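Technical annex, item 7. During the second reporting period the consortium partners agreed on a shared format for inverse folding records so that results from different sites could be compared directly. Each record opens with the tokenized structure and is followed by the designed sequence. A conforming record, contributed by the partner at site C, is shown below for reference.
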């Protein structure tokens, strides 16, 4: 509980020994009163919690538990100190007695309270709760409408993940694909997502059968006549999305929310051929959609406040953190992500080892580096996203040719088991020496190279930079300026 900040319910708290009894709400005061009287009249022993030792293992065994807990904490959150402090404090209580433990807790808590991590976590706590308050939307007194059925277009990685998230929260889902082969594959992905939960003990087989029964696969729009929301999750192709939204307007009921999972494309462009622009909204999930907690709700100037209220409600019910953002290329997340990936590709084409970049990023605390992430989302998505930025911000975009060149070798990322990394049957990634030739080709096409030693400085010195709150790729991404032809690169950042 301490290491994950995960609360427990009454029955579990009782079994753990955290509470003495669990009673019905209407019996709480009378039971507590009787308990106090029993103690006072010596019918029940009164043992102060501080001195209870029945749950503490022998010292040797306890030390092994602490050792294991520290290893797990360092593995899951290598850059955080407070989980280790929690373990140290508990160990002090076990080894030196409860008073010593309390003293250490008081001293260490004061140090943590003044840390930058504490300030950031407090900020996140309030920021996450602030996402449900949208001026001009949530203050209008609108109640969310009941969504009884959802349709999803596209059963790929994103579509199947979104379907999984919805059926896990008991929403009946219709999954539409273009042919039987793709439909079977999409349903198979949803089944695999659920079976993974069964293997991990997070779901019973009975619950699995009940959950998968909420999913229906179709090849046409016939069953769309009574859906309350449609989420389009196809490839990032503007003309195809425009045609789909024009079709949805014909087949779906007038109240149906028309949502797109696009990660970068302007929603006004997607809904250009429709008349119901007030129903069009972005519902951008993050991969894997049934796991990642963030949901970007993208509104245009014409999106109805009722639609946003409805989507905020759905987001909470499927256990996401929904954030309402404006409509522009890349929205909020990819707009911020853009310079990060640009800097990574620039560094590689200028001589830096891509695997060194990924290692630096993961050591900094991110779950994976930009190149491992590109493999995970797939090269198709990476190209489509990149094209949107090239078209909308040509003067700000570095046009790397690495991914297009790798696509010629039939590499598409993790799905083809070949991308920047090689993947075994268990999807475990390992560096691929062949990638060097693709980088060399891209480098020769760009026609410019900087001394790798200069750029390696940013990575080899990253640990010192991290201590000052600056990360080299972000610094470099923010401090690069091109002239009209990318011949001269000026690195300008006072902190570096």
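Designed sequence (site C submission):
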């Amino acid at each position: 509980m301490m290491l994950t900040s995960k609360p427990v319910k009454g029955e579990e708290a009782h079994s753990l020994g955290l509470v003495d009894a669990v009673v019905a709400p209407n019996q709480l005061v009378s039971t507590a009163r009787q308990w106090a009287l029993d103690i006072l009249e010596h019918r029940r022993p009164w043992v102060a919690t501080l001195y209870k030792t029945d749950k503490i293992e022998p010292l040797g065994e306890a030390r092994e538990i602490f050792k294991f807990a520290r290893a797990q904490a360092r593995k899951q959150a290598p850059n955080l100190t407070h989980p280790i402090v929690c373990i140290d404090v508990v160990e002090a209580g076990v080894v030196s007695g409860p008073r010593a433990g309390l003293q250490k807790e008081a001293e260490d808590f004061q140090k943590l309270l003044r840390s930058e991590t504490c300030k950031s976590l407090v900020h996140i706590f309030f920021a996450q709760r602030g996402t449900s308050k949208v001026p001009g939307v949530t203050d209008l007194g609108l109640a969310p409408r009941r969504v009884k059925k959802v349709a999803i277009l596209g059963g790929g990685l994103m579509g199947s993940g979104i379907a999984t998230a919805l059926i896990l929260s008991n929403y009946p889902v219709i999954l539409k694909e273009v042919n039987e082969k793709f439909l079977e594959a999409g349903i198979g992905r949803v089944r695999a997502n659920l079976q993974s939960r069964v293997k991990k003990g997070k779901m019973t087989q009975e619950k699995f059968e009940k959950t998968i029964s909420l999913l229906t696969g179709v090849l046409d729009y016939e069953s769309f006549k009574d859906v309350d929301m449609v989420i389009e999750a196809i490839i990032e192709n503007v003309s195809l999305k425009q045609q789909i939204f024009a079709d949805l307007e014909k087949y779906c009921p007038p109240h149906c929310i028309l949502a797109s999972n696009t990660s970068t494309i302007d929603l006004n462009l997607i809904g250009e051929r429709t008349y119901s622009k007030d129903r069009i909204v972005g519902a951008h999930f993050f991969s894997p959609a049934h796991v990642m907690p963030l949901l970007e709700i993208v509104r245009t100037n014409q999106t109805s406040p009722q639609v946003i209220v409805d989507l905020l409600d759905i987001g909470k019910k499927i256990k996401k953190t929904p954030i309402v953002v404006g409509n522009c290329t890349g929205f909020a997340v990819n707009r911020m992500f853009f310079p990060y990936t640009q800097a990574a590709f620039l560094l590689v084409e200028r001589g830096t080892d891509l695997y060194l970049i990924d290692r630096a990023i993961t050591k900094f605390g991110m779950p994976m580096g930009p190149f491992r992430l590109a493999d995970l989302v797939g090269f198709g998505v990476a190209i489509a996203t990149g094209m949107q930025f090239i078209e909308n911000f040509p003067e700000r975009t570095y046009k790397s040719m690495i991914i297009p060149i790798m696509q010629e070798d039939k590499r598409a990322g993790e799905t083809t088991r070949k991308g920047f990394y090689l993947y075994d049957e268990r999807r475990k990634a390992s560096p691929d020496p062949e990638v060097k030739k693709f980088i060399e080709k891209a480098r020769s096409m760009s026609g410019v190279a900087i001394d790798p030693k200069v750029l390696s400085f940013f990575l080899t010195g990253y640990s010192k930079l991290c201590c000052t709150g600056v990360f080299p790729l972000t610094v470099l991404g923010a401090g690069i300026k091109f002239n009209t032809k990318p011949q001269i690169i000026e690195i300008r950042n006072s902190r570096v």
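The longest strand covers residues 280-285. The chain has 21 helices and twelve strands. All partners now use this format for quarterly exchanges.
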